[in-house]
Design a protein that fits this description.
disordered C terminus, nine-stranded mixed beta sheet, disordered N terminus, 33 strands, elongated, nine-stranded antiparallel beta sheet, alpha+beta
C-alpha cells in the first residue's frame, strides 16, 4: 500500500486543512484522505452574482444600499397612508419601480454575459487520468478535482494550478506563456520537481506514491511554498518554479503532466481576478453634500407648510365651507408635513445618479475612440478601466511618474562598459541606437508616386517593385528595437581576438583576459533568459520575427536580381530591348539558389532571447556580439559559446533570483574551464560596490566610470564574481536546501541564504545601457506644468541618472536650484530639512521685496535618495518634508522602493488634500497606481501588471496631455454644470408647488396633474442634461492644447464649489417666482379652475428649464448648432404633447377635478401663449445676460491673454513650466483673430 494511504496519517485532519494543504492522488484508497480532498473546491468557476432564486432578493437588497432608493420607497409607502396621501398611491410607485426595474434589467444583462463566459470556460476539455480506464480521458474543466493528474500538450491552456511532475524535455524543463494571466508575452521557464524519482522516465500516475504538503491558497503569483514527501521519507522542497498556473499556455514543450494542487476559485489566477475597478470621484463626494442641503431645504419648506396649515386651521371660527374641525391644528400640521414631503419629492433628484452613470459612459466612449490617443505602431488605444472617475481627470494637481519605461522607452541598448578598470565607450554603437519611425511611411509614399508614373510611362516598371520591397522591409523593421545590434568596441575586440589569434598586435595580461572572459560569461548566463529559435514551435512573437527574416531575404534576392538585370556592363540601365536579348545561365541560377538557401539557413538559425526585462536582453545580446553566446538553457545546465574555445556545457547549480530587497541576482555554476564553484552576481552599483573588496584600484576606476555613466543618463549595473571552495559550498548548500524545503518563513530564510553567499565579491566591471526618452516627453511635461500640475519623479535609479533624465525632459532647467537631500542619519535629515526650508523661505522673502513674481521657491528642485526618503516619511519628519516639497517646483525621489512610492503618493494626497495622479509601466509601480486618486498604466516593455491595476491605460506618456488638458477639462466642466442644472430645475419646479401653498391654505394641493409631477424628472427633463453632459465643449480641443493654463483656470473659476450651489438655488427661486406670479396676475379675477391655472405655469416651466440648458450650452454656437437645436426643440414639443395627452389618458388622476380637455381649451386662447412667452422671457433674461457677459469675458481674447500673462509671470519665477528659462516648443503666442475664429 502507498505511503500516502496509511489510515493513521496524522496530517489528514480538518484542523490540518485549515493550516496547510495536503494533496495526494485522487484515486487514493485511503478514505480519510479522500474526504480531505473533497473539502477542496472543484475546478468549476462561477463569476455571476446571482442565481435564479437569489436574483430578486439580492438585487433589491443591493439597490437599497443607495440612499435615494430608500428615500423614494419610503415616500411611495407613505403615500398609502390615507391621512397624508397627496395623490393616488399607485402613481407614487411609478418612478421608483421604473428606476429599480431598469437597474435590475441592466444587472441581469451583465450577469448573463458573465454566465455565458463561465459556461464556455467550464466546458473546455482537457485530458485527465482515469484510474478505472488506466489512461487519460477527456474531461471538462469543471470536473477536474484536486489530486487529478492532467496531461497537456504544446499550445494548450492549463486548466488549474498544477505541480509539474513530468516534461518531455530531457532536462525536465517546461515553458509557459503568462499573457492570459499578467499580459506578458515572454516565456517563463518551469521545471520538474527536483530529485523526483521518475524524472527522465515515462511518467505513469499509478507509480506516484508521494504526498504533497503546501501552503493554503493565496493570490501571490510569485510565491509557492511546500514540500513533497516521498515514500522513503525524503522531503523535497517546492517553489514557484515547479507550479503551472491556471490560464497560462504551454509553449515549446511537447508534453507535460502535473497533479492539481489548487482548483477553481482557489487558483491564483481566480484569486487575483478582482474585476473592474470602482472609485468615488471628488465631484460625487461634493454632490452628496449638495443633496443633504436639498434635504434641509425640503425640510424647511415642509415645516413652513405644516406651520402655515396649523395657523390657517386655527384661524377658522365659523367657516363658510367644510373644514375638518375634529383634528387639532397641531396634528393637522403634522399630517401636512408628511403630505408636503410627498408633494415636494421632486426636489431630491431620483434620476440624477442614473444620468451621471449614462453621461460617464458616453464620455468614456468618446475618450476610447479618440484617434489622437491611438498608437498605430502598437495597434493600441486608450483603455478606460474605471468607469466613474472621468471628471477627476480635470482636477489633477500632483502627478507622480516613474522614469524607466514611462518617461523613457524602456528599450535598452548596450552603450558602454568598463572591465578591469578600463573603459570601452562603444561610440559606434551609441550612434546606431536611434531609429526613424517615419522612414517606412516615406518609402510607401515614394512607391505610390512611382506606381503612378508606371501607368504613365513604362520605363518606370521596375522602380515601383524596388520601392515596394524597401517599404515592406523598412516598415517592418522600423519598430524593432535595435538592442541586439551591438557594434563591438575596437579595443575590446582586439583583446578578445587574442583568444583565437595569438598573433594579435595587442597582447592583454592573463588577469585582464580572465576578467574580460568572466565578464561576458556573466552577461551571458547571469539571467533568466529563455533561449529559442524561430524554427521551433513558437508563439506569435517568433512567427513575426520569422516573417521579418523572410522579408529581409526577399529584399536581398530581389535587389540582386534587379541590379543584375537592369545594369549593363557599361554601367547604364538596360532597356527593354536589352532585356529581351538577355539569357539566363543555369549555373549562375543554381549558384544563386544555393547562396539563398545558405542565407535562409543562417537566418533561421538565429537565436531568439525571451527576457523578463529589456536590461537582460540587452546584456545577452552584448555578450553575443563579443562571441560569448548563450545557446541553450535547462534546469541543470547552460550551453555557451566562448571565443576561441567553442561550445561548453556549464553546470548550473543554483539561481538566486532578483528581488527588490537585495537589488541583485546571482547564479552558482561550476566553471567549465577551472571546475571551480563560481558565483556570478549582477545588480545595482549601490549594492554591489559595498559587497566587493574593501580596497581595489579596479574599484576606484570603476566608480569613476559609474559616475560618468550616470551623468550621461545611462542605466548602470555592476558585474562581480566569487570563487567558492568545495567545503564552503557544501556548508552553504545544506543551509540553502533547508531554506528551500521550509514552508514557514521560506522567503526570509532564502534571503538570508543568498546574503550569506553574496559577500566578498570580486568586481569584474560595469555596464552602461541607454534608455532614450519617449517622443514629446519634454513638451508634455512643459504643458502639464503650465496647467498648474506639479510633476514628481519617483524612480529606483541612481541620483545622477535621474537628474540627467530630468534635464533631458525639461523637468529641470539650468537656472533651477537643486536641493539635494542625502543624509546618513535621521538627525542629520531633520537638520537638513530645517535648513532647506529656511533657504526656500529666504527665496520667497527676496522675491516679495523685489516684486518680480509670486514665489522664488518655485525654482527650487528637491532631490532625495531612498534612505533619506524613508526617514522623511516617518511621523517625526513628515511635516517638514511636506512643507519643503510643496514649496518646490518639482521633487525627484531616487533609489525609492515600490512601498516608498505608494507612501509618498498617499502622504501628499491625504495631508495636502490634493488630487493625485500616478503613472507607471511596471509591476513596481502597481502600489503607487492603486493609491493615487487616478492611476494610469503604460503598456510598455515590463508586462501588463501596471495596466491591469490602473484606472486608465495608455501606450505613450505624451497621451497624458490630451487626456488631462482636453478630455479631463471637458468631463469635469460637463458634469459639474450638469449637476448644477439638475439642482436648478428641481428647485425651480418644486418652488412652483410651494408658492401655490400660500393660496390653498397649505393644504398640500397642487395645480398640476399628478402624472406630470411624478414624471417631471424621470422623463420630461431627462434628455437635455444627458446631451449636454456628453457633447458640450466649452472650448475647442486645439485651444485647450495650445493654452494649458485654461486647465487650472477652469478649476478656479467654473469649478463645482459650494457657493455655486446657493447661486443656483437663488436663480431657481427667482425663475420660480416669475413663472408662478406672471400667470397668477394674468389670470387674476378670472374664473379659471385649478388645473386651468396650472396649465400656463407647467408650459412656461418646461420651456424655461429647457431654454436655460440651451443658454448654458457652449456647443450650440459651434459645429453641432443645428443638431442640438433640433434635439432640444423636438424634445420640448414631444414632451408638451405628452404632457397634454396624459391629461386625457387619465381622467381620475386629479380628483375631484376632471382634467379632460382642459389643456386643449387653454391652448385655444391667445392669453395662454402671451403668458407663456412673457413668463419665459422675464425668467431667462437675467440668466441670459449673465451667461452672455460671462462668456464674453471668460472666452474673449483679452481674458485668455490675461490668464496667459498671469501664468507667464509665475513662470518667470520658476513655477510651472520652464518657458521663461528653458527652450520649449510651447512658447505662448496668442493671436486675437485666431482665437475669435476658434470660438465662433
Amino acid at each position: 500500500m502507498n505511503s500516502t494511504e496509511q489510515p493513521s496519517c496524522p496530517h489528514a485532519t480538518k484542523e490540518h486543512h485549515r493550516m496547510k494543504r495536503t494533496v495526494v492522488p485522487s484515486f487514493t484508497e485511503n478514505e480519510e484522505l479522500k474526504e480531505l480532498l473533497q473539502l477542496y473546491k472543484s475546478n468549476k468557476i462561477r463569476t455571476t452574482k446571482y442565481s435564479f432564486l437569489s436574483f430578486l432578493p439580492k438585487n433589491v437588497f443591493e439597490q437599497l444600499h443607495r440612499f435615494a432608493n430608500v428615500y423614494f420607497i419610503f415616500l411611495a409607502a407613505l403615500n398609502f397612508v390615507p391621512v397624508v396621501e397627496a395623490f393616488q398611491p399607485e402613481i407614487a410607485l411609478v418612478p421608483i419601480v421604473l428606476v429599480l426595474s431598469l437597474t435590475a434589467l441592466k444587472d441581469i444583462c451583465e450577469d448573463y454575459r458573465r454566465f455565458k463566459t463561465d459556461r464556455l470556460i467550464n466546458g473546455l476539455l482537457c485530458r485527465v487520468y482515469s484510474s478505472t480506464q488506466q489512461s487519460y480521458v477527456d474531461q471538462c474543466w469543471k470536473n477536474v478535482q484536486v489530486g487529478d493528474f492532467v496531461h497537456l500538450s504544446c499550445n494548450e491552456i492549463i486548466p488549474a494550478d498544477m505541480l509539474l511532475l513530468y516534461s518531455s524535455d530531457p532536462h525536465g524543463v517546461c515553458y509557459i506563456e503568462t499573457a492570459n494571466l499578467d499580459g506578458e508575452t515572454n516565456l517563463k521557464q518551469r521545471q520538474v520537481v527536483s530529485d523526483f524519482p521518475l524524472q527522465g522516465e515515462e511518467f505513469t500516475p499509478e507509480s506516484f506514491h508521494s504526498r504533497i504538503e503546501c501552503e493554503n491558497p493565496n493570490n501571490d503569483l510569485s510565491r509557492f511554498r511546500g514540500y513533497m514527501e516521498h515514500s522513503n521519507g525524503v522531503r523535497v522542497g517546492l517553489h514557484s518554479g515547479n507550479l503551472l498556473l491556471r490560464s497560462c499556455t504551454i509553449r515549446n514543450t511537447e508534453t507535460v503532466v502535473g497533479i492539481v494542487v489548487y482548483a477553481g476559485h482557489e487558483t491564483k489566477a481566480m484569486m487575483n481576478n478582482s474585476g473592474p475597478r470602482y472609485k468615488r470621484s471628488k465631484l460625487e463626494k461634493h454632490l452628496n453634500t449638495d443633496i443633504l442641503w436639498c434635504v434641509v431645504l425640503l425640510f424647511v419648506m415642509c415645516l413652513t407648510a405644516a406651520i402655515g396649515h396649523g395657523l390657517w386651521m386655527n384661524s377658522f371660527k365659523e367657516s363658510i365651507f367644510q373644514v375638518d374641525t375634529e383634528t387639532p391644528p397641531a396634528l393637522a400640521g403634522f399630517y401636512i408635513f408628511w403630505t408636503m414631503v410627498i408633494v415636494l419629492q421632486v426636489l431630491i433628484p431620483i434620476s440624477l445618479y442614473v444620468s451621471i452613470e449614462i453621461v460617464k459612459l458616453g464620455q468614456i466612449y468618446f475618450i476610447h475612440n479618440d484617434l489622437s490617443l491611438y498608437n498605430k505602431q502598437l495597434d493600441s488605444r486608450i483603455q478606460c478601466r474605471a468607469l466613474n472617475i472621468t471628471e477627476d481627470l480635470g482636477q489633477i494637481q500632483y502627478l507622480f511618474s516613474d522614469k524607466t519605461g514611462t518617461l523613457t522607452e524602456n528599450k535598452m541598448v548596450f552603450c558602454r562598459c568598463s572591465i578591469f578598470g578600463v573603459e570601452y565607450p562603444h561610440e559606434e554603437n551609441g550612434r546606431n541606437r536611434y531609429y526613424f519611425p517615419h522612414v517606412g511611411n516615406l518609402f510607401c509614399h515614394i512607391f505610390c508616386i512611382f506606381l503612378t508614373l508606371h501607368f504613365a510611362c513604362s520605363e518606370f516598371h521596375c522602380f515601383y517593385i524596388l520601392f515596394l520591397l524597401l517599404a515592406c522591409w523598412v516598415s517592418t523593421c522600423r519598430s524593432c528595437v535595435q538592442a541586439k545590434e551591438v557594434v563591438p568596441d575596437p579595443a575590446l575586440g582586439r583583446k578578445l581576438n587574442w583568444l583565437t589569434n595569438h598573433s594579435s598586435s595587442e597582447t592583454p595580461s592573463s588577469m585582464e583576459l580572465t576578467y574580460i572572459t568572466d565578464f561576458f560569461l556573466a552577461l551571458a548566463i547571469c539571467n533568466s533568459v529563455v533561449v529559442s529559435s524561430p524554427n521551433q514551435p513558437r508563439h506569435l512573437l517568433a512567427c513575426r520575427l520569422e516573417c521579418v527574416s523572410i522579408i529581409n531575404i526577399t529584399v536581398i534576392l530581389w535587389l540582386q536580381l534587379f541590379i543584375q538585370r537592369q545594369i549593363g556592363h557599361g554601367g547604364h540601365w538596360k532597356t527593354e530591348d536589352d532585356l529581351k536579348d538577355t539569357q539566363t545561365n543555369p549555373d549562375e541560377a543554381r549558384q544563386s539558389m544555393q547562396d539563398l538557401t545558405k542565407q535562409v539557413e543562417e537566418i533561421t538559425d538565429e537565436l531568439v532571447y525571451e527576457a523578463e526585462s529589456p536590461d537582460e536582453a540587452a546584456l545577452v545580446h552584448a555578450a553575443r556580439a563579443y562571441r560569448c553566446t548563450l545557446r541553450g538553457r535547462s534546469a541543470e545546465s547552460l550551453l555557451v559559446d566562448l571565443p576561441g574555445i567553442g561550445s561548453l556545457a556549464i553546470q548550473l547549480l543554483h539561481i538566486l533570483p532578483f528581488d527588490s530587497n537585495r537589488k541583485r541576482m546571482s547564479v552558482v555554476v561550476r566553471h567549465p574551464l577551472t571546475g571551480q564553484v563560481v558565483v556570478f552576481t549582477k545588480g545595482a552599483d549601490s549594492v554591489i560596490m559595498d559587497l566587493t573588496e574593501v580596497y581595489s584600484h579596479i574599484k576606484e576606476k570603476t566608480q569613476k566610470h559609474l559616475d560618468a555613466y550616470a551623468r550621461e543618463g545611462l542605466r548602470t549595473l555592476c558585474i562581480a564574481k566569487k570563487v567558492l571552495k568545495e567545503d564552503e559550498y557544501d556548508l552553504w548548500l545544506k543551509a540553502h536546501m533547508l531554506a528551500e524545503s521550509s514552508i514557514e518563513n521560506r522567503e526570509e530564510l532564502l534571503l538570508e541564504s543568498a546574503q550569506r553567499l553574496e559577500t566578498n565579491l570580486t568586481l569584474l566591471g560595469t555596464t552602461g545601457i541607454v534608455d532614450r526618452l519617449q517622443e514629446e516627453v519634454p513638451e508634455t511635461i512643459a504643458a502639464l506644468q503650465r496647467a498648474g500640475i506639479k510633476v514628481w519623479v519617483l524612480t529606483g535609479d541612481k541620483q545622477e541618472t535621474a537628474i540627467n533624465i530630468a534635464y533631458a525632459c525639461k523637468l529641470l532647467c539650468a537656472s533651477d536650484k537643486l536641493l539635494t537631500a542625502n543624509c546618513g542619519s535621521k538627525d542629520a535629515c531633520a537638520a537638513l530639512f530645517e535648513d532647506l526650508i529656511l533657504e526656500v523661505q529666504g527665496g520667497e522673502s527676496l522675491t516679495a521685496l523685489t516684486g518680480n513674481g509670486e514665489s522664488m521657491s518655485s525654482s527650487f528642485i528637491l532631490v532625495t535618495d531612498g534612505r533619506t526618503l524613508g526617514w522623511a516619511l516617518e511621523d517625526e519628519l513628515r511635516s517638514n518634508f511636506l512643507e519643503l516639497s510643496r514649496r518646490c517646483k518639482a521633487v525627484i525621489c531616487c533609489r525609492s522602493t515600490p512601498l516608498q512610492k505608494s507612501q509618498v503618493v498617499q502622504l501628499i494626497r491625504d495631508h495636502l488634500g490634493v488630487m493625485t495622479l500616478a503613472v507607471g509601466d511596471g509591476a513596481n509601480d502597481v502600489s503607487m497606481i492603486q493609491v493615487a486618486d487616478v492611476g494610469i498604466g503604460i503598456s510598455g516593455q515590463e508586462g501588463m501588471q501596471a495596466v491591469m491595476s490602473s484606472d486608465f491605460a495608455i501606450s505613450r506618456f505624451k497621451h497624458l496631455s490630451k487626456l488631462l488638458l482636453v478630455h479631463g477639462h471637458w468631463c469635469y466642466s460637463r458634469l459639474a454644470n450638469m449637476i448644477q442644472y439638475f439642482i436648478y430645475k428641481n428647485v425651480m419646479y418644486v418652488n412652483l408647488l410651494f408658492w401655490y401653498q400660500f393660496f390653498c391654505g397649505f393644504s398640500g394641493s397642487v395645480m398640476t396633474n399628478s402624472w406630470v409631477l411624478i414624471l417631471f424628472n424621470l422623463i420630461f427633463t431627462s434628455a437635455p442634461p444627458l446631451i449636454y453632459g456628453i457633447l458640450n465643449q466649452d472650448l475647442p480641443a486645439d485651444t485647450l492644447m495650445e493654452l494649458p493654463e485654461l486647465y487650472q483656470d477652469a478649476q478656479t473659476s467654473k469649478t463645482f464649489v459650494p457657493y455655486m450651489f446657493w447661486i443656483t438655488v437663488l436663480d431657481a427661486f427667482y425663475q420660480s417666482l416669475v413663472c408662478f406670479f406672471v400667470p397668477y396676475f394674468a389670470y387674476a379675477g378670472s374664473d379659471v379652475g385649478v388645473l386651468s391655472f396650472g396649465s400656463p405655469i407647467n408650459a412656461s416651466a418646461l420651456f424655461i428649464i429647457l431654454l436655460h440648458q440651451v443658454i448654458e450650452s457652449n456647443t450650440l454656437v459651434r459645429l453641432t448648432t443645428t443638431t442640438q437645436n433640433h434635439l432640444y426643440f423636438s424634445w420640448a414639443v414631444s414632451q408638451l404633447l405628452c404632457l397634454y395627452n396624459n391629461n386625457g389618458f387619465c381622467v381620475t388622476c386629479s380628483p375631484p377635478v376632471n382634467p379632460l380637455g382642459i389643456e386643449l381649451l387653454q391652448m385655444s386662447h391667445s392669453l395662454f401663449y402671451i403668458t407663456c412667452v412673457l413668463t419665459t422671457v422675464a425668467a431667462l433674461l437675467p440668466r441670459y445676460a449673465h451667461t452672455h457677459t460671462l462668456q464674453k469675458l471668460m472666452y474673449s481674447p483679452t481674458h485668455i491673454t490675461t490668464v496667459v500673462n498671469k501664468k507667464k509671470d509665475s513662470h518667470r519665477t520658476g513655477f510651472g513650466s520652464p518657458t521663461a528659462r528653458c527652450s520649449s516648443p510651447f512658447n505662448i503666442k496668442v493671436h486675437y483673430s485666431e482665437i475669435r475664429q476658434r470660438l465662433k
